[in-house]
Amino acid sequence: MNAKMKINLVGILLILLVLVVGYLASSSQKLVMTYISGFGFLALISMAVTLAIPTIAAFKKGDFTESLLSNRGTVAGYSFLFALIHVVLVANFFFNWNLGKMLENPYRTLGAIALLAVALLVSFPRISVALAEKYKWLLPYLGYAAVALVLIHSIAIGAIFMKNDIIKVAVVLVAGLLIILGMIYKRRG
């Protein structure tokens, strides 16, 4: 099985895991909230992992890290998919697709901006011709900004995972460390 197939398998298994664990661990009243939180948390973690791949590959050379590096777009695609599922569930179950009402809260707006940034990053191979070469270096920083926006969004309105202070601190520390290491790695080229 090649690396891309393995990444796809892990992505599908993570979706199934959220669905099964949510169903088994939640009452019927909290099921939707568990799914929303689960997919939001997966989006945050997979975004941080996507940004960390070049840094990890720089420190630990090998077949695994090389395959991750060459398939980073697939990992980013799953970040977008998890975020999109999260947003669709929120829009459907809490706002009846009233996007204006959804964006009344500034923290939800930050999440929406992050979703657009991730959509741009995922579609980058298709739009790279439209971007001048001199602006390509900005895209990784767009990823760091998206993770920072998602962190703020999650800390402010995260319903299940981000309500625990220990998890909040751990996620912020790990994501912050990954962003700092990634920016250092980018500067060193």
By helix and strand content, what is the structural category? mainly alpha
Global geometry: globular
Helix content, binned percent? over 70%
How many alpha or pi helices? Answer: 9
> What are the low-pLDDT stretches, counting only 5+ consecutive residues below 50?
none
Walk me through what this model shows.
With 189 residues, this protein is mainly alpha-helical. 81% of the residues lie in helices and 0% in strands. It is globular. The model has no long low-confidence stretch (mean pLDDT 84).
Summarize the helices and strands and which ones pair or pack.
Blueprint: H1 3-25, H2 31-59, H3 63-70, H4 72-95, H5 99-102, H6 106-122, H7 124-127, H8 138-157, H9 165-188
Report a brief summary of the structure.
The protein is an all-alpha fold.
List descriptors:
189 residues, mainly alpha
